[in-house]
Amino acid sequence: MKKIVNSNLIRLFSFMWKDGGTPLLGISYIVALIILSSQQFLFNFVGALGLKIVTDSILAKDLHGLFKGLIFVAKWFGILLIIIPIFGFIYECCIIKTTMIIKENLFKKVLSLSLDYFEKKHSGDFMSRINNDVAIAEGAYSWQIMMLVMAFISGIGSASVIFYVNKMLFLYGLVIGLLHFTFNVAFVKPLKNVSDKIQSKLSEVVQRFSDIVSGAFVIRVFMIGEIIFKKFMQANLAVYRLSLKRVKYNSILAAYNYTAGWLIFFGQIVIGGYLVMKNDLTFGNLMISVNMMGSLVWLFGSVGQFLTNLQSSLAGAQRIFEVLDIDKKYLDDTEIEYNCVPMVTEINQNSSSICIEFKEVSFSYSETKEVLNDITFTVPKCAKVAFVGESGGGKSTIFKLIMGFYKPQKGEILIFGRPISCYTVKELRSLFAYVPQDCYLFNGSIYENIRYGKLNATEKEVIEAAKKANIHDFIMSLPEGYNTKVGDRGLTLSGGQRQKIAIARAILKDAPILLLDEPTSSLDSESELEVMKALNALIEGKTTLIIAHRLSTIKDADIIYFIEDGKIIEKGNHNELLRIKGKYANLYLKQFATKYYF
């Protein structure tokens, strides 16, 4: 456990030097930390010396000495009151910068993860790590480490002063301090275990909150709010019970430390008073000892508590590092190249009449069942090719393989005659424009959402793409036009409007291959007609692959592949497939609810 704590702590601080940090940031932090951690000892020491001078002057009825003590305290307190705020500002700046660096690294890591990883994790878990765990981990390098260093500097400095003043009082402080430490350190492990469990359960609470936001519509339609609430309450109640357990431990520690503090003070007065009566100690030196003893005992009593708090922060840091250390197999690396010929500077799209080719491709998400089974097909350049079939047949998986989200376990995929494994991810995805069934719009303006298709696009190009997608007139009817905010996931717009914006984005990208994943399946008939007009502008001159449940949208396809259980069982155009009276013909008849006469 100590090894993990040390490695996590060192790694947390390493963000000040690398991964976005600089030596200047690290050095500034250390200097500010040392000065701020010394403030308690310096104030106590100056105050104790001033108190000694004033006390001895009062007993000696020395008015000059009294003023000398007051001037001494005022001068040094004034200096400290100038220095401390300056370095406090530097320290806080270092903390803010380090937290920003950690979030940047975490964000970049999540951005680089493959689709496979996201499909296995709950979005709420990521939100918990980015928001809660980063904030908790920040405590380690903000106040916790400072309090720990402050305890050591103040404690060791005070011990040196007390040792110089009187060795018996020093021995008393040392023995009492060790007993104090023994009691406090006994709570470190239990508090650490409770803190780890709280962090884990807090992640579940965030996940439940994520569910009620993302699944708001489904929750209301199916009236499952009570069930979702019960799941939330289970996680929240677990956090509550664990928090009570932590409060119990902290309450015992606080009560003990408060009581012990007064008993230690009382014992010191008794021993010190005895030494004063024996003339082995001056009253002024007793005041120094009284003033400094608290810091010595605080060192022993607080180390255990600070280590416990540090454990809580490092539990948050551990959850951050779990994301940063995700195995490389889950990375969506734009520079990874697999065993292939050297890269070329440009992709030759004219080298073959075939745009996409699958050769005996097999794929499974797990070892239980193959989603695609020895599937072979070709997509000619500039052709419109459709994939139809029942849900779960493997249609969407084909798209994911083409875009490089997964690699097939068997077979080969070629794009423009070149194995897909010889493309970088960046090269590969530059070939595609994608319009999904439920398009995702980012929380920003309509202009920004369209421009994501081509980041260096001019305003004229964005407007032209919107016109081709038949969405320009609607945008201009809005009070803020292209600057209109679409809201979270674009929910302020209708399904048809969101789809047209996604089509405009795809038009702007101007990629040679279009992937349309049921682009009209969630729309009403009127919206479908409008979106189909926009799609026709997008499809013109492109190689187009369409996944469709509504067969009316693919009647003009050059090739239709009917997929069932990961295999192509029928191939042809619309009329050819109707004539063979197979699966496609049956599906077509079901959708249109009329009898077809052959």
What would you say about this model in short?
With 598 residues, this protein is an alpha/beta fold. It contains 20 helices and ten strands. It comes from Caldicellulosiruptor kronotskyensis (strain DSM 18902 / VKM B-2412 / 2002).
Largest sheet: 6 strands, mixed
Number of helices: 20
Helix-strand pattern: HHHHHHHHHHHEEEHEEHEHHHHEHEEEHH
Euclidean distance between termini CA atoms: 76 Å
**What is the arithmetic mean of pLDDT?**
81
User: What helical percentage do the residues reach?
Assistant: 55-70%
Percent strand equals 5-15%
Subcellular location: Cell membrane
Domain ABC transmembrane type-1: 31-312
Transmembrane segments: 21-46, 66-91, 145-164, 170-188, 209-229, 249-276, 283-301
GO molecular function: ABC-type transporter activity; ATP binding; ATP hydrolysis activity; ATPase-coupled lipid transmembrane transporter activity
Molecular structure report:
This protein is α/β, with parallel strands linked by helices. Among the domains are: 2-330, ABC transporter transmembrane region fold (Up-down Bundle), CATH 1.20.1560.10; 439-510, 3-Layer(aba) Sandwich (Rossmann fold), CATH 3.40.50. The chain is built from 20 helices and ten strands. The protein has helices at 2-14, 23-37, 39-59, 63-112, 115-118, 123-165, 167-185, 188-214, 216-221, 225-277, 283-324, 395-402, 425-429, 446-451, 459-468, 472-477, 495-509, 525-539, 574-579, 583-592, and strands at 354-363, 372-380, 384-388, 410-415, 418-419, 432-435, 513-517, 543-547, 559-564, 567-572. It has a six-stranded mixed sheet with strand order 6-7-8-3-9-10, sandwiched between helices. It has a four-stranded antiparallel sheet with strand order 2-1-4-5, covered by helices on one side. Helix 8 packs antiparallel against helix 10. It is elongated, with a radius of gyration of 35 Å.
